[in-house]
Amino acid sequence: MSDFDSWFTPQTSNLRTQGWRLWLAVSAGFLTFAAYVFFADLPERLRYEKMGQQAMRQLEQMRRPLLELKTLETRLADTERPTATTADIQLASDFADRDLQRFSQLSTYKPELTRRVKRFANSYHAWRSAQQHMLEHARQPDSIPGHRLVQHLSHSDELFLASLNALADCEVPIHADIRNGQQAQAELWIASTLLLGYLIIVVFGFQRATILAAEAREKQLDITLQSIGDGVIVTDTAGRVIRMNPLAEALTGWTQTEARGRPVTDIFHISNAETGAQVENPVTRVLREDTVVGLANHTVLTSRDGRRCQVSDSGAPIRDESARLHGVVLVFCDVSEDYAHQAAIREQSLRLQGILHSAMDAVIVADEQGTILEWNPQAEKIFGWKHHDAIGRKLEDLIIPTSQREAHLEAISQYIKGRKTRLIGQRWEFFALHRDGSEFPIELSLSQLHQSQGWLFCAFIRDLSQQKQTELALNKRTNQLTEAQRIARLGSWELDHGSGRLDWSDEVYRIFELDPATFEPSYDNFLQRVHPQDRELLDRAYRDSV
After folding, report:
1. Could you tell me the pTM of the whole model?
2. CATH of 478-545 given 3.40.50.1970, 3.30.1490.20, 3.30.450.20, 1.20.1250.20
3. Fold that domain 359-463 belongs to in CATH
4. In sequence order, what DSSP letters do the residues of 485-542 get, joined into one string?
């Protein structure tokens, strides 16, 4: 591309910019032409040439009455056989005076010519005066000698020649003006020719640049369409296919050559995946509503060879800089895998919800700010807060007792900052806060998950209230049994047959006078503490019971 072409087709050029540049280039040519015409004074020179032509014609016309007057003078001066009359000379003189007046008027366009015409007029009038004087004497031949008449005639001839010379002097500025005007005409013709040539070059360059720009845009558009990861179909305002990219060809089963000029409805067949009903083509809607439209979910594209795939698409109008509609671009992609993934996610979510709802423990999920995200039915039962009341609330405000909130927040903050905490991955017993304001014992195990939005914490909580009450009751009964044995001086022991472990009550140690810290109870050690005469009998009774 030449520099001239590149001036019309920069990388960011558009039609409006190119139009302005064309206008500037044409204006520059006309301004240059006008400047040359002005500074070369072509209009004035052409006007002088025209006036000069008129003056030259009048000058040529002046010679005829002068010569006619001279001829009549000569014929009338012939005293022997005069062939002219005074009336003839007067008539010729009137014609000459009239032409002289016309010539004087035409000479006023140029001061120098005006001066020369005045000199000629003076010479002419001097000649006419001498001519009249000589003719008066010629009519009275006896009043003047012959040699004097010859002198008068000779003087008239001299004045006549002087008039002709003065008239010839008038030709010099006239011829100069005519030559200058003719040169101006040549210069104007050359300048006009150059201007015309320049305009032809500019217009040709603009057209060529416009073609090159259009080809470049077309090439860039093709490259862009080839590179887009979605299927693209471009139509005109009648909904007929103009172009398609390779992915659109693969999804529809039509090549661009086959589809070009055909209605898009013949190429892009879509239907509802669930009902099978045909879905209105997006291009039709865009042309009707003149706005961007998209497909509803669960839309299936059926290709030319019968293949079906879930698609997502959108259609948008194509407008020029004047907002005029030039067509529609349809962009679509195969989302079959996305739908499969979404279905799998939904199934997994349902399974997870089922697990959460059927879990015997309370399950609470919160983010790193402590905002509750999940709250299963068991959590509702344990803490007294319904699901809709708990979601979105702060964990510390609902279930953490006031005395433990500061420690809870500090532990979470330290973990987020990258410091380890003993809470994760172990079971701990704490007191929790019920909705009614009471505190109760719980068992807590905590796990964590890091996502793009931050940390998530999942707490598994079990209410230990019943267990603690049972333990208290059992301890009470154990203490009561121990006290009863002490009072009755009775001991008791338990033997685990599988492990051989033997547990003695405190009273057994006291009866045998043994120290629990140093003596390890076992069945054999127990037999060693029984009287030898009773050992066999006791051992037989034990074996029989087993």
Report:
1. 0.45
2. 3.30.450.20
3. Beta-Lactamase (3.30.450)
4. HHHHT---EEE-TTT--EEE-HHHHHHTT--TTT----HHHHHHHS-HHHHHHHHHHH
